[in-house]
Fold these 4 entries.
Entry 1:
Amino acid sequence: MSMNAVGRPTRPDDIAETSAEFKSLTGGKGLLQYERLIFEKKDYTRTGVDFADIDITPSDLGDLVRGDDLGLPGLTEPEAMRHYVRLSQKNHAIDLALYPLGSCTMKHNPRLNEKMARLEGIGDIHPLQPTSTVQGALELMDTLAHWLKTLTGMPAVALSPKAGAHGELCGLLSIKAAHEAKGQGHRRTVLVPSSAHGTNPATAAFVGYSVREIAQTSDGRVDLADLKSKITDDVAAIMLTNPNTCGLFERDIVDIAKLIHDAGAYFYCDGANFNAIVGRVRPGDLGVDAMHINLHKTFSTPHGGGGPGAGPVVLSEALAAYAPTPWVVNSGNGYVLEEFGEEASAANFGRMCAFHGQMGMYVRALTYMLSHGSDGLRQVAEDAVLNANYIKASLQDIMSVPFPDGPCMHEALFDDKWLEGTQVTTLDFAKAMIDEGFHPMTMYFPLVVHGAMLIEPTETESKAELDRFIDTLRALAASALATKNNTDDVARFKNAPHLAPTRRLDETKAARQPKLTYG
Amino acid sequence: MRFTKDHEWVLVEGDTALVGISAYAADALGDVVFVELPEVGKTVNQGDSFAVVESVKAASDVYAPISGEVIAANDELSSSPEVINAAPEGTGWLAKIKLSDATQVEALMDRDAYEAFLSTL
Amino acid sequence: MRYLPLNEADRAQMLATIGAKSVDDLFVDVPASARLTAPVDLPRYAGEMEVEAQIKAMAAKNLSPSRVPFFVGAGAYRHHVPSTVDHIIQRSEFLTSYTPYQPEIAQGTLQVLFEFQTQVARLTGMPVANASLYDGSTAAAEGVLMAQRITKRNKAVMSGGLHPHYTHTVETLAHAVGMETEALTPAVDAEAEVLKHIDKDTACVVVQTPNVFGTATDLTQIAEAAQAAGALLIVVVTEVMSLGLLKSPGEMGADIVAVEGQSIGVPLSFGGPYVGLFAAKEKYLRQMPGRLCGETVDADGERGFVLTLSTREQHIRRDKATSNICTNSGLCALAFSIHMSLLGQEGLKRVAKINYAKAHALKDQLASIAGIDALTPRFFNEFTIKLPKVAAEIVEVLAAKGILGGVPFTRLHKDAAFDNHLIIAVTETVSDTDMSAFVAALKEVL
């Protein structure tokens, strides 16, 4: 034989064992690279953008000209790619695994949406071009408006609000304007159920309304008797989420709407959970007067690590005239942008933002709607609800459910009763999910349920992924329950996450000595 | 030291009183990270919100346990809010109030009554 | 259906696990009167090719700025964005992640936000900045409400140089919370007038530089006057690229700064989504709206980042929150930050100078045309001219010739006194040929 090569170990057991506590010498974790701040590279001379040299004296600006050192480091393109790709790998993402944040609706973001938003003639057009040169853009907005109105059964929509909370503000300002126009400006109270999103009371207080809380029944719905007792002649509106934040449909919704209308008030519906009913229920048929729609939830525009969102508000006949400018009007002879509050829009309450709203999100949402169609959107709601009920049914023998009777809608709510006697809290349990490769569910919300765990799978999860998730939660739950009798598994929870890019962070330190910028 | 059901305490010294939050409240809030102190010179009525104590995940209004004029605020808490956790019923006091109605103090719970009240929560 | 992984067999199995006969059983809580039994009256399911064709048909009806000489600005600007930016923001880990509420698995987003806040602080010359707001106009409005919280005063004075959309947005929000506003008459050089309107009830003055007409102004004197009267100066910047050449708001004494960040990294996209940059003096930190990212350490003592001071926010304070804002503009902030780090201060200063030089070259050419008055005394990349004819009509005629020739001021604010005013923006994307074509066309139509 010819011995022209040298062998090397080719099986793991040929290699010496390493301890579980293994740490690299320089702080890296294999593919998960340590990455400095751009400011720590301390290079202020480089740039990753090539422009011709230019030597000018801005003579007319005098001492308005800025000094040379701005403290802004530059990166060449390869350095920038490395920096941001390394950082990206420290994030969880929908594209990686089920992301069960209840009430946040982390569904798949179709890439066709992204492609359409970047088309020439869409992504590059200016909001103040002559309207004769953007007829297609106005048509797109009008088409989106038509879909939103048809799906909700409402006659009007204000497109411009830039996110859900901005939409809430828009809805309440429409209500306020309507009351003032009717000489009902003394109405200053908003009824809000105790389970509401924090934005609801925040928005009500913001516009100068006082908040009156409505109690919840033992089956997780608005307490009708309590509601009746709290409707007085100073009530301006009720703000209700439906399906509510416990993931339940408000069975008495039509009666609630009637009570509110009979009292001369309006019904604001928080549409955060519209994805549960799209195509199966029209809020207009429930007596809703105003509802914001989070395009980033129901209509799949990406969450982008915290925005941008979009929060168009559909309005009833009673409120339509008060919608903020601008309005897109199909004049029959082309689309017109009504920006000055003339004629039909004379009663508008004002303007939510510069320009016309989140066009980039409109394109994505409309692309999604056209893809699904009316039949597909109905299927979206059905699959979202089916997936949530499947999770509930598959876990309720081991984890406790506060409202066990009847189906849930798009999200399954658990509490921490089942953890009594263990050494594990909701927070520990959620953090342990990270080590198993899943993002934690929404925790401690809604506030009305102790140690709440709110799981929203969305319709874009396959049964296989749901089963993988259920198996993981069952295994973790069994481990948590085992801490009742021994302490073997406690560290799994108390020190979790063990395998994430960072360990638990000291939020107290961050808040006591805020350090918000480098240097 | 006297207590309210909202977990404030009062310690009378002559015609003034120190006020703060109870050890129970400080423990329930968790690590205090910020305190919004009342303005000196301000007149407060019993039950008014006159300060805010914040932990990382909670912000709680503190209600005046008695009526009167704020004559001093515990400025140390601005830079060292952790003092509230370390000594809520001592150096973690919030404000000194000049009493306008001494009889209000009598109506508050003494320590035994407060302890009994806590055991019902 | 390509976005729905369940098939009929899956659904049947799952219903069996749940113990439901059909999916209708899961909707039993919906009142019978409100149950739709069939899909609503809209088109049915469509494949990628069909959808793409429909959207493209709409896009084709628009005149793309990429195709024609383009001079439109007034609060949104066309700039070159490096290809890297759009590539990175489409990475799954950035595009499809949520607000970083679980910091252990969101350090990517959080470190970016920390770097973004530092970039914004340095660019504006301010000590602290937040993790972004919706856009420049809502940032300005939030600044006004913040000034009310700080000063406990109730009136905002807005300069006549403030973008009219911003004025209107601020009025809407300020009136909603019961504040008074005083919007001064628009003028090319409106800033000095502000001094006369500061009094003991003034919470803040809102001044824009360069203003909506393009005029750049030193606001130091206004800052001093406002602060002497116990009011705050809010500086608005709608063209963030100008900060590569012009003195920063911080250097001029601003208390609060609200900036539209679109010019760096964010496409025009017909007006949104954009990104609001918001910065302030350190002493006002706790009154700031929006999310803040802060540095801390993890259980091993390693540096990490978290959202912090969140007790100011709606999900904790509920009806006592500093604002009702829930979302920031995360992905646009990321785009801004990437583009900013690619530019660095060297690139930023250079592109700013190019903008300045091109705009001044065009102004000189236009000013030499008989009948045109160049009105803006000191400017960066945008200026206003007065035409001998109605600007809105001229702009339409130019558009028909394939030139997008600026924004008539009356598009923003209806007032016959401004019928002939045209605001013209010139960025690095404008070529000499574009400028010649614009000048020639304008000569022809006047």
Entry 2:
Amino acid sequence: MKFSFIKSRDSRSNLLVREISYIAKMDVWKSIKIKRTFRQIRMEKIFRSSLVLVALSILVLVIAFLFTLIVQSMPSIKALGFSFLFGKTWDPVANVYGTYPFLLGTLFTSFLALIISIPFSFSIAIFLGEYYPRGWFSEFLKNSIELIAAVPSVIYGFWGLFVLVPIVRSMELKLGVTPYGIGIFTSSLILAIMIIPYAASLGREMIRMVPSSLKEAAYSLGATRYEVIKTVILPYSKSGLFAGILLSLGRALGETMAVTMVIGNTSIIPKSIFDPGNTMASVIANEFTEAASTLYLSSLIELGLILFLVTVLINLIGKKIIKRFTTD
Amino acid sequence: MPQNIQYRLGKSKAFKGFIIFLSVLCTLPLFLILIYILKEGFTKINWHFLVNLPKPVGETGGGIANALIGSLLIVFYAAIIAIPFGIMGGIYLSENKKSRLSYWCRLSVDVLQGTPSIVVGIVIYFWIVKPLGTFSALSGSIALAIMMLPIVVRSTEETLKLLPSTLKEAGLALGLPYHKVILRIILPCGFSGVLSGIILAVARIAGETAPLLFTAFGNPYFSTNILKPMQSLPLLIFNYATSPYDEWHDLAWGAALILLIWVLLLNIITKITTRRWKIQF
């Protein structure tokens, strides 16, 4: 194989010799014989500046993102101001745009999903990080958790619509609430499944980084395994676990398709968690292509702007915490 | 707190059992979904399903050829746009670890990674769809390329960072120009990491629906024109699953199975690539 030399674990000095002989074998050898020409120097400069250009363009892309969202939502910011956030009715026909129902729906679904998923993701993190770091079953578990993250959200929504909704409906019948089936509770369940991998895989890495000397000290004082986990591992890795929760929350807030398919899409303020509702993302997905008037469109974009700012903020805080945790 | 040692050990065991129970329970939904979609989708897929167009409501049969081709094309163009940019960005970040631009660039990659996919759809609607005056596959590809970019940049950067600096120094010592050192030595050595990042990114965008809602839009007919609306698998699943017709549900189940197999296959390929060509120094 071409890169087989990489696999050998030689000492560092030996490696350099191999590197050079490897380079010598490659066809670039021919170009080495040629003296450095102006053409080469020019190419070098072009290459360097194009790298800078690409990095700049990524930065410009994000700034343009924000700029576009702000400019396009300007009409509704000007016309509605703060009544946009706290207005209780959303009625495009009457030209009334209050997003309170969607804010409420988004917060309900995301936090309910978070509450459902946390015990599961933490137990996976402890299972893979502390109890069984390796072995065929842990490999299997790890891979299936990664697959949960890989399944497209539209498939979760589809499955939820045809399997979860009837189950929830029969449950609601037993509880004596209106049996919609669809609604905030159902979408929270789907979301909970979808966000488990984010907190779990991060939590696993964080728990693995707990120094073994700390754990051994606790064991030598006579602590049981449970006590070690409770008094050493969890406190030590708590900021990392918190970052995992934040990343899950960011994912839950921005998730669109699965929620849109099972939440019911009504713009009325939900009275209980079994009521149908709407989230910010799902209302955009449903109404964006139908929005005829400028104000309607720009208020949908303002929703997108809020969603963008909130999720980005949560993600950045989460990443910052991870960075601090790993560099300490 | 005088506690019996037997009690404490029992508590420890009970906790372990609880953890194992919850962890195993977690995999249950995944397998329920996989089995259900396999069961529903498997009976729908045959040759006609793959080569025909969807029939109107009321007629049985029909296929999803337009969505299959459309999905492949949209993802292909997205990859063509995102891969060069992503790799170049990754190279810049790994070569300039501490410059001010790389700090801001890294931040913007993080921002892009956290951006909800529906917001990408909105922005691309205003950038491409509105000026061109029509929904188009091209705008869908660009939206997906933006979703793909952060993953490719990050994986390239992380891989190239792992390579020892002696590799680069050896190349430079032999008098190779900088761009050849990067393109012919550094990049081939980190090939597996870069490739697995690309495949992972493709797997991620293959199932994305939200950015396509306002860009590629969907199309019930066969189309390969990138300036016209185009159907794709996730869009077809969304539209047909939320429709009230059983024939369309059948099509959506088949499409869901194909999409699922495609995405899972790409993930498995990523796994194999990283294992096969693992960089060990």
Entry 3:
Amino acid sequence: MAYDYQPYPYVAPPGLKETEPRHAVAIVGAGPIGLAMAIDLALRGIKSVVLDDNNVVSVGSRAICWSKRTLEIFDRLGVGDQMMEKGVTWKIGRQFHGDEHVFTFDLLPEEGHLYPAFINLQQYYVEEYLVDRAREFPDLIDIRFLNKVLNHDDRGDHVVLTVETPDGEYALEAEWYIACDGAGSATRERMGLSFEGQTFEEQFLIADIKMEQSPFGDEKVPERWFWFDPPFHSGKSALLHMQPDNVYRIDLQLDVDADGKEEAREENVIPRIKAIVGDKPFELDWVSVYKFRCIKLDRFVHNRVLFVGDSAHVVSPFGARGGNGGIQDVDNLGWKLAAVLQGNADDRLIETYNEERSHGSAENILNSSRATNFMTPKTPIEALFRSEALKLAKDQPFAQKMLNSGRLSLPCSLEGMALQTPGAAQIAPGRALVDAPLSGDAGDTWLLHEVQGDFTLVGFGDVMLPDVPGIRRIGINTRAEYPCFTAKHNHAMRRYGSPKAYLFRPDAHVCAVFDMPTKEEIIHARARALGAELEEAE
Amino acid sequence: MSVMQDRLSPDQDEFYSTLIAAHEGLSSEESQAMNARLILLMANRIGDLGVLSDIIEAARGYN
């Protein structure tokens, strides 16, 4: 393997000897989602215990594509720089039909953002960085490796977990149980929750190869290549993507009735890869055969048990919406759960996690199903429409946009949902922050760094912001008693419009907009964002 | 061959999946007939003979 797996130490938990005091939060699963959840809560002063049945980071080839919004969230969690440093930033995607190059897209059409549209980075690196970061909160995050949750029982205001360790079993209580235990979630199985949806018949061979020479020609420019009906793999689709350490991801669509085990054998995989990369020497790092599913739970909130990430929803990989969707779940839940635990909101706010992220996940499922459908036509008429769209795509811009090898994940919009105060602005209430470069007394910064994490009121241009306890204020292109910044190259002013004030939630979604905000309006909008106007739970 | 302005964006995926769904369950003859009706209905909606001639010519050009 290209990655050197170091097992994390197991430490006998105190619960084996004596009853542990009730924990605020138990997080089940120390994958990227569980770890990000623990760090998000720790940054808000909330303690958690993280339980994982394993003791190494993700084995093999899993999530690789991290979107701009995810990187912005990781920035807030404290691992954004590390990910950028190690990750491969790519922006050019080429699509081929047969041996013809049909269309190239550029993911970065706009200047003035801290993070790029996407980076590629193996999941094991992301988990390593998150474990290291989590360990910077020894008083708040208690990670327990080789602690397998065997059972859980929701007692109304807390959950009792039965945990197995190498030294025997113990019981643990937590006010909230967050299931970050992945697509095969044992929590979900124990609760007998239906998890059904579209399963695609086609199988895909996923391989990671290590190869010193670049297949893209110019090594300095990492790209994403996608083939509809490639000459080396007739009638199917193929994807080639670059990761750090000269590792390349290859996805090959197989026959519906292909024998997965047989296809994954090295002697069968090697010729398929040679057909793509030619005579360049390479080593196989990882091979597996998958069928993709697009499924979500009906509800992500079941009283004190909350589903986050793949345990709540799975998608096909085209469009990079699995891991990225999960990180947005974390971003949405963290501040809400902290507000409830700290007495600033009641349980109804947790229900809005269900509403908002169910919506986000449905959007991801819609997009990834459409991409998978486009890539794998089921009937002759579908195949006909696709092949003619590919022909037209040689010069017709509308047809170029129709080619769908994955619509890249954009931040989910929460427009029109209950926590947002309705209003009109360039960035409508519900939408996620759009970054922009700023300069201030302490040097250059980014809107993202000034806004994320807490309720923040931002005034663009000539608009005075009243002082409301607990709400951070910043001004842009103005002078005031609170911190003020200049919009570099005017990006911030162009993106937000002025004069205008925006109230951001702690997850950097806009929750209210104002022309001239009063103190009362701001207090009201924040209360609404904390769930004060939601109907009483049934 | 004339390059035409993109008027579908950003709804191209929604349109494409609606179109494919409309063919679901049809035999290949039924699909062909459905396509013929679609073209006639769309022609009537466009209603401009000059535009229609350009489109026909463009479509022929890809053979």
Entry 4:
Amino acid sequence: MTLRLKALFAGAVIFTAGTASAATECIAPANPGGGWDFTCRQIGKILYDIGQVDQPVQVTNMAGGGGGLAYQSVANERTDDADLIVAASQATATRLAQDAFGGATADQVRFVGAIGADPGVIVVGADSEFQSLNEMLDAMAADPGSVSFAGGSAAGGFDHLKVLQLAQEAGVEDIRAIRYIGVDGGADAITQTVGGFTQGMTGDMSEVVGFIESGDVRVLAVLTEERVPGFEDIPTAREQGYDVVAVNWRGLYVPKDISDERFQEWADKLRAVGESDEWKAAMEANGLAPFLVTGDDFQSFIDGNIADVRTLSQEIGVIQ
Amino acid sequence: MAEIVANLGLGFSIALSPYTLMLAILGCFIGTIVGALPGLGPSNGVAIMIPITFTLGLDAVAALVLLTAIYYGAMYGGRISSILLNIPGDEPAMMTCLDGHPMARNGRPGDALVISGVASFVGATLSTIGLMILAPALSRVAYQFGPAEYFALYLLAFCTLGGMASNNQAKAALASCLGIMIAMVGLDPNSGMARLTGGNLHLYDGVDFLVAIVGLFAVSEVFFFIEKHGKQGALNIVVGRVTIPWAEIWSTRWTMARSSVLGFLAGVLPGAGASLGSFLTYMTEKSIAGDKGGFGTGVAKGIAAPEVGNNAAAGGALVPMLTLGVPGSGTTAVLLAVLVTLNITPGPTLFTERPDVVWGLIASLLIANFVLLAMNVPMVKVFVRILRLPPAVLMPGVTMVSFVGIYALTGSYFDLLLVVAFGVLGYVLRKLDVPTVPVILGILLGGKMEKQLRDAMVLSDGDWTYLVSSPIAVGLLLAAFLGFVAPLFLRRFIRKPPVPDHAKPID
């Protein structure tokens, strides 16, 4: 085969992914492999399987600026594309709150809803000295630098903020002295913790499920209002006396200038996915907790969430 | 052992069904092509195929078989354009350029392809067997590597860089510094502040090394071609009969054995991956062979080592991906996403909970390897035929495919501009006789090395002795020191042979 034929072949493979213009496009604002990619592919697959859309959903990976590139593109260039949905999560809200999207603000798109949430967890290795969240936070209150954490988000990101929120609740005065390293994803953070390089891991439930089953780690607390179905023996931070709730919701946003009818249509379709058995099975397999909020309810959730994160980020000096 | 045989039986019973077998062969074929195209590597090859696996409604085992066959196929295919065009088909095939292309220019392109094909087979097969036997035990190795150990590992890679340039160590050092500088562009991982981006959002995630590779190798090659007004083809080689050089392959047996082990281990370490595997194996074999080994002039060992290394690393990288859910490379990160989407949770319990998935995958990999050997050795003439295309057709074709590949990967016009910029940089560097491979390694590993160093400092509260606090770190640092110093002393005692003409960059 000549190289020219090969070029045609490669072109054919690539362009089959881009020809159907009427098909729904889902932008995952990151490279394949992360949470946003999962959101797009899973929602896209179920939308098609349950007949909410009549053509397979095309997933486009638009990595850049921690999701900022896709956000800017949707907010500025594709403002009225009604066939476009974009994967979002708590990280989107956190970065908007910290003004990390190059000046873009939360009102430049419309948030459709969330269909699941990954509960925040605080984890230690199976042989750790800490048996409960209280023991860990007491040690930190005595010496904030004595307990170090690894997490899957960069410093100042949501995983880091979870630890800081708990520390604030526990009365740790100098929360800036808490050591945190951001590594490539939750599983990597766990290997650092099980290996003894950090004392604690902060992340999402989905990232630790396999390690709970294998007995390598112990979950000190889950950061939800109630215990998570399927993991009833893991106590919440609340019942241990620390009022911190932090979940990484998974959902969508759409361009700002689409009609209210189309917006409502997307909210209904998302709700249909959220209520499908397929999605419920996917949630269970991945340690996601139910969190189905759509339409205007979700918009007010986002507004409150962004305000909270902004206040906390200012307190720790991530933003001015 | 009996357990492994029983499990493997289960695996083959799944993998040998006609449907699965067909998928494996299809995957091998697509993978080899994707790998051979400059700019398209295993990670985008697999990524492009994901929607197709969903559209076909493949189940978990079938999807995994197809995608990992593409993964392995791309690892084989990457060497083809390295050897024939001096443009690596993907980043792990970079080291294969160093000896593979000189051998092709010496009039033995067929031999170079056969030797590298066999080497790929040996590396991939041994590492698949390693994966099978050692995976559960080896997954614990990742727990031994913290920031200090990783920093020492990356430092080792950079310290042995001096031996890379055949004639001037200072230029190699300059090139790697340039690469590290480029790696600094983007968001600072520890503070989230943007560095050297000029406020451009496109640069916040840094420079993708695929962009750099396509620019530095493929586009700069086109510039050289234009400079010569297309008169002299980049490759005016007469291809004779392709035979299998048995004796030469046999002479590399120890190189292959050593490189398999080293490459596999490099793959097992999360984050090190295939590129480091091929790099470490090449440098190891080069130092064992010494100056009289003729590395860089087109010797069989110089082709075998990196090809065994990167294919062994590809198998090794599946170990942390399957047992810990930690991707060892870009491609395994994509595969991880597929697993998760298929509702399979990789992790410590995968081997016991889903033996059909794991052992079906392993059996398919073994089968895929034999298919790939057949495609890449007896059918090698198909690929040699590429040489007969007039360069005026070949070079624009390569450029087009590279640009399409990059755009498919990133979906950003900005990256296309960057590709051109890197092309200009590559042209200037090669005019100045500065090697471009260390630039890529700097981009690839520089950012990771910095991150590990800074994590180590965060954890130790700025105490530098933390870097030498474990035996593994001390051992690696010692090896790095020796790797840096030894060539300087050895040079006094051994007179360097004159560098043959064909080892110099083509200009």
